[in-house]
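Please predict the structure of the following assembly.
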Amino acid sequence: MKFIRFSDLCASGQVVGKRVFIRADLNVPQDASGAITEDTRIRASLACIRMALDAGAAVMVTSHLGRPTEGAFKAADSLAPVAARLTELLGCPVPLLANWVGGVAVLPGQVVLLENCRVNEGEKKNSEALARQMAALCDIFVHDAFGTAHRAEATTYGLAEFAKVACAGPLLAAEMDAISKALANPKRPLVAIVAGSKVSTKLTILKALSAKVDQLIVGGGIANTFMLAAGLKIGKSLAEADLVEEARAVMQAMSARGAAVPIPTDVVTAKTFAADAPASVKAAADVADDDLILDIGPQTAATLAAQLKAAGTIVWNGPVGVFEFAAFENGTKVLAQAIAESSAFSIAGGGDTLAAIAKYGIEKDVGYISTGGGAFLEVLEGKTLPAFEILTRRAQEAALTPQAPTPALDVARGVEMMGSEAGLKKILATVLISMTANLPEIEQALAKGDVTTANRLLHAIKGYVPIFSTDALVAEVTELEKISKTESADVVTPLYKQLAPRLAGLLAEVRQFSA
Amino acid sequence: MNLNLARILVVDDDDVMRTFVVNSLRRLGIQSIEVAADGVAALRAMVAFKPDLVLTDIHMQPMDGLAFVRQLRGHANPFVKNMKVIFMSADASTATLQDAMPLGTFGYIVKPPRIDTLKAKLELALK
């Protein structure tokens, strides 16, 4: 996925004095009095806001909070508690602005919080009129709310479509990078763990992953359905008998590709679903009619752990047993530790998975922990998230749109060196003929590995560019001419590819000036 | 010698640079200018044009500036043998200077010269 990174714009000075609109995810839990009970999302959003302020931008931030009714603002929908918390965390005033769609007064170095964006009429339905109005507020739109990346709303999609520049903030960029690494270009073998109570809720994910992964480890109620499909008895365990055929289809799709769905060889069972229910470990073939399978057995856990340790990439969604109960946590714990110890790049997401990661303290050992529940699941389902689609499209368009080139022709210098504008025009007429012939010759020479010819031609250009070019272009030509004296075509060719557009730009400027 | 009356031979294989040098010489009031694109053509011009001074590039094909000046210095005709030469090159490396200096020249100009630099070098050489 190629997209524009806000950090790159900041680093290259393209944000100085610009109006930056950040779509953050500040949807924090609140108690009945409206007080924030957990502020992780606010703290996570600080990186992007600080980046924008440090880069010299005038900063506008918005988010949704709860599920308000569009056009009917109520006090409970207000981001006021968030503004107060942001003020504390940033150590600078963060005024909250209501009714902001028509215009926002903010100066470079300042940050304002724009009231709950889901109150604006047309937000949910991605109204083009609303999106265009919001796009007009800013020079740069920054999407930094992965949790909303699966929704095409006015602040998460339309704004990205119509803003002059649309890019990904640090949180969204990290998610996009991790997802690309795990799913678009995974190091093999790619092992996925998909667990949870029901096949039905994750059938799309199972089908999508069965076309990609080398091992599909199933757990929880999902594993029970696969055991049924494999012809094993599962007693009273949670399973969906009507989905056995679907499970079998997934297994067949996997084995047709030479991949596999490992079926547990042993399990941990109990007679009741309770923390204190006596647990017994038994072979998968020995499950009794009144047994409940509540975890994978130690032999299965060890086998799967070995596969995880040998993996190149691991995608983890869901615990494999009832890990909240000590007697049935072993499978999840062993797999969690195996993921932590594995050299594979691992990406994990989903509420229960995050709880398991926290319980076993392996946060630092997981390659990437995705915080966007619904968005992460949609990625696993193989869907292209609307935010990813629009940001990559905008990046492609930006790449195709010719940028205003850095000037290469220095007319004042040319007039001084030649004594008059007529003198400059006279030499530029010669330059046009000479360079138009020489640039393709350099390219052809390099293609043949003939650096000597390329150097001779670059030497001539180096000789005359100081008559009428900017210092920057002179420096670039001088540097490459020097390198081409000693280095091979392998070194010179890619450097010339960078210089060639600058020389072509000079020619274009010369033509325009001479016309 | 008055610059206006000087006869200058400009030897350079690059059209743009020849245009530049000739333009600069004209700005200094010099009327008699001849150009050559390499050492071989320059040798022919020595006899036909009879310059007072040669401004020559170094990197040229088929005969480069150093080979050209060596030929001058070995020439039977004393006028040609003792010709005043100023080298011009975009290459200001010490190695090139070391090659050029023993050939008895009136200086070395890094291309493209500013008009006052060129004037000072010419005046010194033609004094």
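Chain B has six helices and five strands. The CA atoms of residues 14 and 37 of chain B lie 7 Å apart.
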